[in-house]
């Protein structure tokens, strides 16, 4: 191997520069098996100083870098295109003490969401973002992609939790603004610019996040409704009447039937429904009565199962949360992540099957997602061969409904050709200028987010 690998070994130690194909393999493919790329080597630094030294060495050698967190991304943004150094942040796992006065904590980018949640809970607090990949998704990845998840209805996306970051530019310069004054209008907000920048501007190495009161008591309902319209009527009631609303998720008969057959789950309700909504309420006192009362008054409710104990709640959540793994166990899906204004959701869901059937007549489409934001995950099984066509048709339909072509998973490598359906030419040009200012050589995550000229 070359001088660059030797230099990287000098920075991180021999054991953390991987060049053997079998050792690199798990970093070169995403877990859905949809994105592959060969890395020149995998390098695993232990802290910000090592990340800076790695980036300086790569800059000196003129080699591009792909940044990877927990490798749970769904748009190929953390997998190399081919020939880059793969910079894994998996060893940046420092959990600093929780600042209970400020209700904040600083953690390394490689800390998993679950480890952050447990750390916050041990100090009597909680973290406001939660999602199904919690055991593997890393905090750095959550920030770099501005991850959403199932608590957006209460706390907003990841960017709303981020107080400050430490990050390294492509030339090795360290930007550290972890603990800014609570009110601070002193220029550009670089922290927020890095949220959702998908590793194209800098490598985030440490993050300071705000924490929220712990969930306390919780109640979950799985509600059968007559379709999208019913789900929206239920959402309107939930938003108007529940002071404790913490999640409102949507799935449909097709997905619930797949989840049931893969996971061998019993029927959740007395009969099958076209659509299902999972509602979670949390509060200092038991929210079950408030939830049951709202459900009793809502004419959209066909049937509902309610659980207040932890085991019962987990059973109900499984019908929604195991969609991704049940789909993955069945095949390699065309995976889209879109959102439309709520008043367009019914029309979109009605129109999608026809649009998909026109290019993939035998495909099986599974829709589920985050009802409150009109954010649907469109997974199409049996359409791999015509994936680009399906993507194109669906994203054009979404744009016609004034929606986003990537609601929470980011643009990655997968969605760059369609970025102009959601962002204007002028906006994309301004983004290119920002990219050039931070990373003039285009060395960080090339091919991610911004389309090739
Ligand atoms: C979810 O909401 C994730 O469960 C994954 O965003 C979505 O697998 C998907 O399409
Ligand atoms: Zn999601």
Q: Would you give an account of this structure?
A:
With 453 residues, the protein is α+β, with helices and mostly antiparallel strands. It has 4 domains: 3-88, Uridine Diphospho-n-acetylenolpyruvylglucosamine Reductase, domain 2, CATH 3.30.43; 104-210, Uridine Diphospho-n-acetylenolpyruvylglucosamine Reductase, domain 3; 217-324, Alpha-Beta Plaits (2-Layer Sandwich), CATH 3.30.70; 331-426, Alpha-Beta Plaits. Helix content is 36%, strand content 19%. The chain is built from 16 helices and 15 strands. The strands form 3 sheets. Strands 12-9-11-10-14-15-13 form a 7-stranded antiparallel sheet, with helices on both faces. The two termini are 33 Å apart. 49% of the residues are buried. The mean pLDDT is 97.
């Amino acid at each position: 191997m070359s001088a660059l690998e030797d230099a990287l070994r000098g920075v991180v130690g021999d054991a953390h520069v991987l060049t053997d194909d079998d050792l690199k393999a798990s970093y070169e493919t995403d877990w859905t098996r949809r994105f592959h790329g060969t890395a020149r080597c995998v390098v695993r630094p232990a802290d910000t100083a090592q990340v800076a030294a790695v980036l300086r060495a790569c800059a000196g050698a003129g080699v591009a870098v792909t940044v990877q967190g927990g490798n749970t991304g769904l748009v190929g943004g953390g997998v190399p295109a081919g020939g880059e150094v793969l910079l894994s942040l998996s060893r940046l796992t420092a959990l600093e003490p929780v600042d209970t006065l400020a209700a904040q904590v600083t953690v390394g980018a490689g800390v998993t969401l679950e480890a952050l949640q447990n750390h916050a809970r041990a100090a009597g607090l909680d973290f406001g973002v939660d999602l199904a990949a919690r055991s593997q998704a890393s905090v750095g990845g959550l920030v770099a992609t501005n991850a959403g998840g199932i608590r957006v209805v209460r706390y907003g996306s990841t960017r709303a939790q981020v107080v400050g970051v430490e990050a390294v530019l492509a030339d090795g310069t360290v930007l550290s603004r972890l603990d800014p004054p609570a009110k601070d209008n002193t220029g550009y907000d670089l922290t927020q610019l890095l949220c959702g920048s998908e590793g194209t501007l800098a490598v985030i190495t440490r993050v300071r996040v705000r924490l929220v009161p712990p969930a306390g008591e919780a109640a979950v309902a799985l509600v059968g409704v007559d379709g999208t319209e019913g789900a929206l009527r239920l959402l309107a009631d939930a938003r108007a009447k529940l002071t404790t609303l913490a999640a409102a998720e949507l799935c449909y008969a097709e997905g619930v039937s797949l989840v049931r057959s893969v996971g061998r789950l019993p029927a959740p309700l007395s009969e099958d429904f076209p659509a299902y909504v999972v509602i979670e309420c949390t509060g200092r006192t038991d929210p079950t009565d408030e939830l049951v009362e709202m459900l009793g008054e809502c004419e959209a409710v066909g049937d509902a199962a309610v659980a207040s104990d932890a085991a019962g709640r987990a059973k109900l959540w499984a019908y929604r949360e195991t969609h991704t793994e049940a789909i993955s166990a069945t095949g390699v899906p065309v995976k889209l992540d879109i959102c439309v204004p709520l008043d367009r959701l019914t029309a979109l869901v009605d129109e999608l099957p026809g649009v998909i059937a026109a290019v993939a007549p035998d495909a099986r489409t599974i829709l589920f997602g985050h009802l409150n934001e009109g954010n649907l995950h469109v997974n199409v099984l049996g359409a791999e061969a015509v994936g680009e066509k399906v993507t194109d048709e669906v994203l054009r339909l979404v744009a016609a409904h004034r929606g986003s072509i990537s609601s929470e998973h980011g643009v990655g490598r997968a969605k760059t050709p369609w970025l102009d359906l959601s962002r204007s030419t002028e906006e994309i040009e301004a983004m290119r200028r920002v990219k050039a200012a931070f990373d003039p050589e285009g060395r960080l995550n090339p091919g991610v987010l911004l389309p090739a000229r």
